[in-house]
Write a structure and sequence with these properties.
Blueprint (H helix, E strand, L loop, with lengths): L1 H33 L5 H4 L15 E2 L1 E7 L18 E6 L2 E2 L6 H14 L1 H5 L15 E9 L6 E9 L6 H17 L33 H5 L2 E2 L7 E2 L2 H6 L1 H10 E7 L2
Parallel strand pairs: 2-6
Antiparallel strand pairs: 1-4, 2-3, 3-9, 5-6, 7-8
Helix pairs in contact: 1-5
The structure holds zinc ion (3 copies).
C-alpha cells in the first residue's frame, strides 16, 4: 500500500515536472519540420526529388510519415527526445483517385487512406511507448494535409503509446496535439477526454505483434518478418500475409522509402 502510494506520488511529481518540459521538444520538432510559412520546400527537405510518373494522368500525394516510439534501452527521461530520437521515417506516394476532385474530396480520401494504413503504421517493430517504459499498445496519428499544392502533400506524426486515453502519456499526447493544432491551423486530432471507455479486456494488442492475427504469444512474435515488397508491415506467417493482402495492398504500393533511425 505504502509502496503504491509512493509510486503514485513519484508518478505525480514526474508528471508535474515533465509536463511543462516535454512540449518544448515537441514544439521545436514540429516547428522545424512543418512550419516555415507552410511553403512546400521545407516539407521536402530530406526527401529525394519526385520521380517522374509513368502515369501522366495520375496525381500522386507526397506523404511524409514519422513513427515515434521507444525501446527498453532508451533513457527514461527527456534525453530520449530531440534530433536523434528513435523513429521511423516513411515516404508514401499513393495515387489520388480520379473521383477526388475538390479540396474536400481530396482531404476525405486522404483521411480514409490514413485510416486504412493504421495497422501498417503500428505493426512494424517491437515499439515501446514514446513517453514511458511500457510496451506500446496504441498509435495516435496527427495529420496535416496541403492538398492544393502541386503535388498535394501530407505529413503524419504517428505516436506509439502505452495508453492513448488515460494517464500521463495520454496527457502528453493531448498537450502535443493542442500545440500542433495551434501552430498548423489544422483542427486538433484528439478529443479532450480523460474518461476510459475501454474495458480492461479490450486493451489493444501491442505494436510488436502480427499485423493480421495480432497474436500476443511469444512464439508468434518471434516469427515476425516484414512484408518482402514494402519491407514494413510484419506478419507471423505467409498465411497471415496472404489473408491481409487486400487490406495491406494500398499501403504496400504507396511505400517508397523506409528509413529507420534506430541507434
Ligand atoms: Zn506510456
Ligand atoms: Zn499472424
Ligand atoms: Zn508490403
Amino acid at each position: 500500500m505504502l509502496g503504491a502510494l509512493f509510486r503514485g506520488a513519484v508518478a505525480f511529481l514526474i508528471g508535474i515536472v515533465k509536463l511543462p518540459l516535454l512540449p518544448l521538444h515537441l514544439i521545436r520538432r514540429f516547428w522545424l519540420q512543418t512550419s516555415p510559412g507552410v511553403t512546400p520546400q521545407p516539407l521536402l527537405q530530406d526527401s529525394e526529388t519526385l520521380s517522374p510518373s509513368d502515369d501522366a494522368d495520375k496525381t500522386f500525394v507526397e506523404i511524409k510519415a514519422i513513427v515515434y516510439g521507444s525501446c527498453p534501452t532508451d533513457p527514461d527521461n527527456d534525453d530520449r527526445f530531440g534530433p536523434h530520437q528513435r523513429r521511423l521515417e516513411l515516404t508514401l506516394r499513393p495515387a489520388l483517385p480520379a473521383s477526388a476532385k475538390t479540396k474536400e474530396e481530396k482531404i476525405k480520401w486522404l483521411d480514409r487512406f490514413f485510416w486504412r494504413i493504421s495497422r501498417d503504421m503500428k505493426h512494424n517493430r517491437d515499439w515501446y511507448c514514446e513517453f514511458c517504459t511500457d510496451e506500446a499498445h496504441e498509435i495516435v496519428k496527427m495529420n496535416a494535409t496541403w492538398v492544393r499544392l502541386t503535388p498535394p502533400m501530407a505529413k503524419s506524426y504517428i505516436h506509439n503509446v502505452c495508453d492513448a486515453e488515460t494517464g500521463t502519456c495520454a496527457e502528453y499526447l493531448r498537450i502535443m496535439d493542442k500545440e500542433m493544432a495551434r501552430m498548423s491551423g489544422h483542427p486538433p486530432t484528439l478529443a479532450p477526454t480523460k474518461t476510459k471507455f475501454r474495458k480492461e479486456s479490450k486493451i489493444p494488442p501491442t505494436s510488436g505483434t502480427c499485423a493480421f492475427c495480432r497474436n500476443p504469444d511469444e512464439e508468434s512474435r518471434a516469427r515476425l518478418t516484414a512484408c518482402p515488397k514494402c519491407n514494413l508491415t510484419r506478419y507471423c506467417s505467409p498465411a497471415c500475409r496472404r489473408l491481409d493482402k487486400s487490406r495491406h495492398k494500398m499501403c504496400c504500393e504507396a511505400v517508397k522509402e523506409v528509413k529507420w533511425h534506430w541507434p
